[in-house]
UniProtKB/TrEMBL annotation, chains A, B, C, D:
Gene3D superfamilies: NAD(P)-binding Rossmann-like Domain (3.40.50.720). This is Dehydrogenase/reductase 11. It holds the Pfam family adh_short. It comes from Amphilophus citrinellus (Midas cichlid). SUPFAM superfamilies: NAD(P)-binding Rossmann-fold domains. Belongs to the short-chain dehydrogenases/reductases (SDR) family. GO terms for molecular function: oxidoreductase activity. Keywords: Oxidoreductase.
Length: 175, 175, 175, 175
C-alpha cells in the first residue's frame, strides 16, 4: 500500500489510523481467532502504518507531518460489557502507542505530531453489528462527522501545538 | 458575582473556570498557606462557580449550557518538578470533578455539557513567574490563543457531542 | 501534635495518613462548608502531617522511614454516585501527592518510602454513615483488618522495594 | 498444557501469568516480527491461559480460584525509552484485561479473583538482556523474590478481599 502511495503521491504527510474492529469475544470464553484478529488490526496494523508513514516523512524531510490514531473511550476505561473487554485491551495499547510515538518523535527532534482521538461509539457498521440488540446504546452514538470535525481541529492547530488526546462521548451517554 | 451577572445578563449559559494558580511549595517543605491558597482557588473556587452556574441554568431552564474547566497536563500525570507537585494534586482533583459533574448532569437528564481542557504550560504571567529561571521550558509554552481555540472547538461541537477532555502540549516539549 | 511526639518518642519514623472523611455534598448543589472540610482533612491535613513527619525523619537522619497514605479506589476512578464526587476529587489529589512525594524523596537521595493504599469501602463509622440507606453496598465492604494487613505487607517489604499503590476491593463488589 | 495438568492434577486453581518478553523494537523503526512476538506472548498467551484456567475452575465448581497477571509499571505509564514502547503497549493491554476479567467474574457471581502485580524491572535474564549497556538501571532492579512476596500476599488475603493491582518499584528508582 505504501509503495503504491509513493508511486502515485510521492509519500504520506498525514496518516490517520482509523481501521479497527471488535468481535464479541469475552475473556472467560472467547475464541482465540477473534482475539488475534483484533490484535492484528487494532495494534499491529496501526503500528505498521505508523512506521511506514514516519519513514515516508523522514526520507522526504517532511517535518510537519501528523499521525492520528482513532482510539476509543475504551482505551481509557473498561466498561462493564464483556463483549468489549478484549477490544478495550487493544485500545489501551493504542493509548500507550500514541504517547510512545510522541516521545520518539520528540527524541528525533521532529515536529511531526502524534494525536489520539478517543470517541465513544460511532454510528457505523461497527457499532450496529456489536450492539444490534441494544438500540438504547445506539441512541446516543456519535456520527462519523463528529470524528472528522475532531480530525479537522487537530490538523488545523498551529505547528507548535501538539494535541495529545481528545475524548468524545454522546451527551446522553450514561456510563 | 453571580448576583451581578443575574442582574445585568439574567444568568450564566457558559462558565469557563479559568482561574488557577501555582505557588512553588514542594511537599517536603512547603508552606501551608501556599497550599491552602492553591486549594481554595483551583478546587473550591471552581466548584462554587460550577454550582452557581448550574443553578443559574436550571432556574432558567437552560439545557444547552456548558461548563469548561481549564485543567492542566499536570491533572493527568505528575512531572518531576517539586514546585508543581501540590499544584498537580489540585489539577488531579479537577480531572475527577469534571467527570463527576458530567455524571451528575447526565443523572439529571440535562444536556448541559462538562469539558476539561488540559494544556501544558501557557505563556502567561503564571508561567513566567513559576519558571522565571528556566527559559528552556518557556520556549515551548503554548500561547493563550491556543487555549481559546480549544474552547471555541468545544463550544461549537454539536449538542449531542460531549467532549470530555482535550490534552494539549507544546510540539517541542520533552517531558 | 508533632511537638508532643518529639518530646515523648523523639520523632516519627512511620506516618500513616489515615484520617479522611466524606460529606454527601454533590457538585451541582453541595454546601461549600462540606467541601472545604473534606479538602482540609483529606488534602491539607495529609500534607501537613507528611511534611512534619519528613522533617522529623530528616533532623534525626532516619533514612528508612515510611509515609503511607490511606487513599481510596475513588482516588483512581469516579463512581456514579453524586455523594462521593467531591470526596473522589480529594482522593485523586492524594494519588498525585503520593507520586509527587516519591519523586521528591528520590531527588533528596532518601530511602524513605511513600505508598498509597486504595481500598474500596471499609466497614467503619465512615461507611455506615455515608451508605446508611444502602445495605447492599455495606455487604461487600472490607474490614479494617484488611487495610492493616496491607499496611503490614507494605512495611515489611525489603528496603529496596517501594510499593507505590495497592488497590483493594470487595470480591463481591460490582462497580 | 492444560490437558496434561488435568490428567496429572485434575485442574488449575491458581493461574499466575508470568510469561512475558520485550524486544527492543521502537515504534518508528521496529521490526513487525518482534512486535508480533510480544503481542502473542504478553497478550494472547495470557488470555488463552486465563480462559483455560477459568474453564478448569468452572467445570470443577472451584469458586476460590485466583488468576494473577504479572503486569509491569509500564502497564501504567509510558517511560521515555523507545525500546520499551511496544512492550508498554502490551502491558497497558494487560491492565485492561485484568479489570475486564474482574468484571466478568463478578457478572458470573464467581468468587474467583483477578489481580495484577506491576513491578518495575526485575533482575532476571529479561532485564539483563534489555538493559545490558545500562548498569545504572540494573542497580535498582527488584529481585524475583520481591514479586513472589507480592504473590504470597495476594493469595493469602481473605476470600472477600480482591486485590486489584500492586505497583512495585525500586526505592532508588528515578523515573
Amino acid at each position: 500500500m505504501f509503495a503504491a502511495i509513493k508511486e502515485q503521491h510521492k509519500g504520506v504527510d498525514v496518516c490517520i489510523n482509523n481501521a479497527g474492529l471488535a468481535h464479541p469475544e469475552p475473556l472467560i470464553n472467547g475464541k482465540t481467532s477473534g482475539w488475534r484478529n483484533m490484535m492484528d488490526v487494532n495494534i499491529l496494523g496501526l503500528c505498521i502504518c505508523t512506521r511506514e508513514a514516519y519513514q515516508s516523512m523522514k526520507e522526504r524531510n517532511v517535518d510537519d507531518g501528523h499521525i492520528i490514531n482513532i482510539n476509543s473511550i475504551c482505551g481509557h476505561c473498561v466498561i462493564p460489557h464483556a463483549d468489549t473487554h478484549f477490544y478495550s485491551a487493544t485500545k489501551y495499547a493504542v493509548t500507550a502507542l500514541t504517547e510512545g510515538l510522541r516521545q520518539e518523535l520528540r527524541a528525533e527532534n521532529k515536529h511531526i505530531r502524534a494525536t489520539s482521538i478517543s470517541p465513544t461509539l460511532v454510528e457505523t457498521e461497527f457499532t450496529l453489528r456489536l450492539y444490534s440488540n441494544n438500540p438504547d446504546i445506539a441512541a446516543y452514538a456519535l456520527e462519523a462527522i463528529d470524528i472528522s470535525s475532531a480530525v479537522t481541529y487537530v490538523l488545523s492547530a498551529p505547528p507548535h501545538v501538539q494535541i495529545g488526546d481528545i475524548q468524545l462521548r454522546g451527551t446522553e451517554e450514561v456510563s
